[in-house]
Amino acid sequence: MIDFIIRTSEQLPTLLQAFRKEAGLTQAEAALRLGVTQQTMSALERNAEKVSVERLMRLLSILGVELVMRQSSPGDAVKPSDAASSGPTW
């Protein structure tokens, strides 16, 4: 099992798409399970930072992904000025 550390919402689209593909689902199949259209699923993957927590949690469940939250050490905290420039950590 691999842990992915997400520090900014901009990291979500790529990761969600990768998890969907790893689950062997097309956008249309994932959309059907989520109860939305394929176009909505596409928009969700492109703009994941704007998705409601409820919908995100349902999607993670469909993809077989669990959300684990843990407090980072003080040196790991992202400063607001760093958030825009930090790239994915996976």
What Rg do the Cα atoms give? Answer: 14 Å
Give the integer mean of the pLDDT values.
85
Q: Label the overall shape.
A: globular
**What is the total tally of β strands?**
0
Distance between the termini: 13 Å
Please report which band the strand proportion falls in: under 5%, 5-15%, 15-25%, 25-35%, 35-45% or over 45%. Answer: under 5%
CATH homology superfamily name: lambda repressor-like DNA-binding domains
Describe this structure in words.
The two termini are 13 Å apart. Helix 2 (27-34) crosses helix 3 (38-46). The protein contains five helices and no strands. The longest helix is centred in the first third of the chain and has 11 residues, at 12-22. The model is unreliable at 83-90 (pLDDT under 50). The protein has a single domain (1-64), classed as lambda repressor-like DNA-binding domains (434 Repressor (Amino-terminal Domain), Orthogonal Bundle). The protein is an all-alpha fold and 90 residues long. The protein has helices at residues 12-22, 27-34, 38-46, 53-63, 80-83.
